[in-house]
Amino acid sequence: MLGPVLLAAARSDSIRRIVAATPVTRPVVDRFIAGERLAESMRVVRDLAARGREITLDYLGEDITDPAEALRNRDAYLLLTEALKTQDLGERAEMSVKLSAFGQALPGGHELALKNVTPVVEAAAEAGTTVTLDMEDHTTVDSTLAILAELRRSFPQTGAVLQSYLFRTEEDCHALAGEGSRVRLVKGAYNEPATVAYQDKREVDRAYVRCLKILMAGQGYPMIGSHDPRMVAIGQELAHRNGRKPAEFEFQMLYGIREAEQERLVAEGHRMRVYVPYGTDWYGYFMRRLAERPANLAFFLRSLATR
Ligand code: FDA
Questions:
Q1: Which domain of life is it from (predicted)?
Q2: What is the per-residue DSSP string for 213-247?
């Protein structure tokens, strides 16, 4: 029941100020966020790479209100691309972007986001790395998939995210299961209405399996974005059934979550990519992590109580 409340709080500026001003927030945030600065997060990336992980980096900058912020976010990603290139990490680390951080929610946002994200995708290709477009709330899906299609004309390696909680997603999986397509399948992290999304977790899980079957049987490159042991096991089984080799799909988990399981999958020879967020605008991301798992929230509340 707390999930929707926390997801609503994730969008509230006044609650953002209270949470940010609470002294114990910081250590809890640090569990999920690699750092506020690029240099700190690159240390985390090098450490993960040394331990056999692949990485996708997310510069936290969603929910902007002004086109100048979109340019700052674009420039932050260009700096990141440069760092990946100079540190020779292009093959191990890619980037995840939220189009809202590039202006998608502003007036004329579709065109603005496409214009702002294109130089990042170009720079990524030059640096030998790729970009995946994160998926946000359901009102953005059409625009995000249209931007993906546009980018893929010149950069077919650009990745997408699909969320199994949306009724439309099985169809989107069919559309994106073709050759060269890279799709991260997740359950979905936003507060969506019953008109567009399954509300019951079991329904979301069943939809996840149906979607994964489509992607695994297709010609593209499926990216299994889940910490759920059942989804991981089903992913392995479907890969086996479809004759996919370890290099033909990957698992993805968020930084700071289920590290032992990440280790185990790497030891079994799987590609295991860690989603590493960094930057100062961590609030929305942090609240979605608290909302999706009572244990994360309990950890936060315990820190408050033991102060
Ligand atoms: P879920 O929360 O359904 O939990 C199922 C089971 O998994 C639990 O019962 C437990 O066994 C295990 N588990 C889950 N979390 C755990 C933890 N912290 N510790 C130990 N066990 C745990 N969403 C979105 O809307 N757009 C996006 O672009 C992305 N991008 C993204 C990238 C990556 C790499 C990941 C992993 C996830 C996302 N998400 C996302 C978030 C996603 O939609 C979803 O909210 C979370 O992954 C939670 O769902 P799970 O499938 O992980 O497990």
A1: Bacteria
A2: HHHHHSSSEEEEE---HHHHHHHHHHHHHTT--GG
The ligand 1 site (C-beta within 6 Å) comprises: 134-135, 161, 163, 184, 186-190, 225-229, 231, 252-254, 257-258, 275, 292-293, 296
User: Which residue type occupies 178?
Assistant: G
77-128 residue pLDDT tens: 999 999 999 999 989 999 999 999 999 999 999 999 999 999 999 999 999 9
Cα(244)–Cα(233) distance, rounded to whole angstroms? 14
What is the rounded CA–CA span in Å between residue 126 and residue 222? 24
166-185: burial string, b at 16+ Cβ within 10 Å, e else:
beebbebbeebbeeebbbbb
Centroid of ligand 1 to alpha carbon of 108 (angstroms): 32
Q: What is the pLDDT of residue 282?
A: 83
Q: Any alpha helices (H) in the chain, and if so which ranges?
A: 2-9, 13-21, 25-32, 38-50, 67-86, 109-126, 141-154, 169-175, 201-217, 229-241, 259-267, 283-292, 294-305
Domains and CATH numbers, the chain: 34-281 (3.20.20.220)
Verify whether residue 134 is a known catalytic residue. yes
pLDDT band at 25 (very low <50, low <70, confident <90, very high): low
For the chain, give the percent of residues with pLDDT over 70: 91
> Can you tell me which atom of ligand 1 is nearest the CA of 190?
25
Give the dihedral of Cα atoms 278, 246, 259, 267; nearest 10 deg.
Answer: -130
